[in-house]
Known about the structure:
Largest interface: A-B, 49 and 50 residues
Shape of chain A: globular
Largest sheet of chain A: 4 strands, mixed
Order of helices and strands of chain B: HHHHHHEEEEEEEEHHEEHHHH
Distance between the termini of chain A: 25 Å
Number of helices of chain A: 11
Helix content of chain A: 40-55%
Structural class of chain A: alpha+beta
CATH topology of the largest domain in chain B: Butyryl-Coa Dehydrogenase, subunit A, domain 1
CATH class of the largest domain in chain B: Mainly Alpha
Oligomer: heterodimer
Number of helices of chain B: 12
Shape of chain B: globular
Number of strands of chain A: 10
Amino acid sequence: MNFEFSAEQLQLRDTARRFLADKCPPAAARAVLDGKVDHDAALWQGLAEMGFLGVTIPEAYGGLGLGHLELCVLAEEMGRTLAPVPFSSSVYLATELLLSAGSETQKQHWLPRLASGSAIGTLAHAEATGAVSNGSLTTHLEHGRLYGQKLPVPDGEIADFAVVTAQEGDDLSLFLLDLSGAGVTREAVSTIDPSRRHARIAFSGASAEPLGERGNAIAQISAVQDRAAVLFAFEQLGGADRALEMARDYALERKAFGRQIGSFQAIKHLLANMYVAATLARSNCYYGAWALSTEAPELPVAAASARISATQAYQLCAKDAIEVHGGMGFTWEFDCHLHYRRSNLLALALGSLSLWEDRLIDALRQSQAA
Amino acid sequence: MNFDDTPEQSAFRARVRTWLDANAPKHLEPELRSAIGTGISGLKSVDPIEAAKAWQARKASAGYACPSWPREFGGGGHSAIERVIWQQEEGIFAQLSGIFSLGHGMCGPTLMAWANEEQKQRFIPPMVTGEEIWCQLFSEPCAGSDLAGLRTRAELAPDGSGDWIINGQKIWTSAAHVADHGLLIARSDPAVAKHKGLTMFFLDMKSPGVEVRPIRQANGHNGFNEVYFTDVRIPDAQRLGAPGQGWEVSLTTLMNERMTIGATIVTGFDQIFSLVCAMEGENGPLVEDRAVRSKLASWAVRDSGLKYTSMRAISAIARGEIPGPENSIGKLVAASLHQEIATFALDLQGEAGILTNPDLSAAKGQFQAMIMRSPAMRIEGGTDEILRNIIAERVLGLPGDIRVDKNVPFNQIEG
Lengths: 370, 415
């Protein structure tokens, strides 16, 4: 048994950590948060040059052709550094959807562009409050053209193309859409975490091509959500660890009542609970990584477990990091709120906690029945 | 990243399975399974101590009793990862050996580190085979989390023999009523700071002046004992470490205690999941209920988180490394989980949730037993609060608490 990343994968982590420490300081996320830029284009280009945008894309399509374990390693580092780039949209969602459902022509057209960073892809799925199901969407196909509205779409302003879920008669299907075409209007929307931009996209007769077979949207999205859940969980894990480190460092540095505040049990126990949550999340994430990389039948259980555990850990670590920092933690100047924002964004990014709780219980019942 | 055995590990596992198939006391399996969490006290068809000793002796004959201990002491001489494989395969039958866990987890390692050659040869092999049972005499009514505040006295005999005379009281001693020997920490010098004045001994539990009384626990069971010492004489040869070195000697075993308890943990998730899946609510199957699902999911990921944390530790062992500090979370997480799950399970049963009779209660009363036992789990082997302190100080590097009694001679500490 070796339930740990390999030496090469750990080396990749070190490389990514050094690269991001240099290219992605907290000021990078702040520049997007403050609205100066819509994403960090220089960082995006740098990630492309490192090959990180095409880790799982086969070499034939211009990628590195590595596995998902390597991508998990990178995701954790992106989460640690709050990387303000469309990595999750382009790599976990658009790339995965193209790889699993794309035609040869679609793959040949988009995958090399995704790997080189010259194109950004995203998934336009949600429309309003609540979960998506067949019949719940207003976005639909009419005479071969798309009508409707998606909200919120991650990186919707800057993406070159989107995979869109839409009603096709009684079916729910996937479509691939060039967002620069006619019949598409996009506008930025304000969110709880402006360091990762989101948009409203309206379609009024936009031209779209099918992605995969008609009526396959639920199955395809569900499969890709399981895979992406593991990757999002690693981002959340990286963020949780970083928030814990920040709180620990501050508890060592800040003095009150004549002592380091970290010597008070009230503070220690907050930090210990954060460590427990982050450790449980890490172990669940590793299980998810194993299931993802081996395409194990346990993936639905493993992905939901990683996702729930990491959501809980990041939310706890981010909120209690503010608590440990006291009043300073609630200033704009301190970075605590960047993680607080991100933790609450990522908690919903792939569907809410309750949705993943449902998925976990369903998957556990199925595996028990099997 | 994989869960696969190496060819050597796989061969070892196959050998263990074959041996277990031929030797395990399979006739006791149903009873052991229905009594999960209560150890051998759940055995009704046989004398539990005799059954435990018989299984231990059989394992010892094949080198599986203390698989990773040296062969010269009767152990199996197996590697740490082979010990883990053995544990995985032994499964439910390990419940039979609970009575030996303190001996094997703490007393044995302490003797190996601190006893002389002759003593090791005399005492360790019968500990392995189960012929002799050991207990650990550490906690006292006034010294639990703050163990170094213990008051049991060890004084040199006035007759100049060099023997020690022990007076005082220990508490929460598992297996003391059946133990042949005990590992004892006592205060030999009250005039120095509390950690400096302690000395470690081992003694024959049949020594004159030793009195064992069962404690009636809050749940009505008698799993632990009080042990009273009245002028108990211990030869100086049975001192482990120098006089005043007892605290250092005890540290050999305290971390072992947490590892031991964490390794065999059951969270109760499987039990509550089965219960919920079998129950109907007002609006159909209970497992379809949103609020129920949310709780189940939250427990499921803590349960799996612990399971895979232990897999990470086993991987470290397989690589020949020492597992990292992440294992310190095991008991802390599992203990609250037990309590939460039991409370919820009773709630699901409505007014009938109070019933403890196995014939009348859902799930044979196991959750009622669990709710009554669970407060102890949050205390034994380190309270939740002490465990959080340990994580904060040893793992996260936070400063220790201010200790007002740190350099004060023990006999001048107030309280």
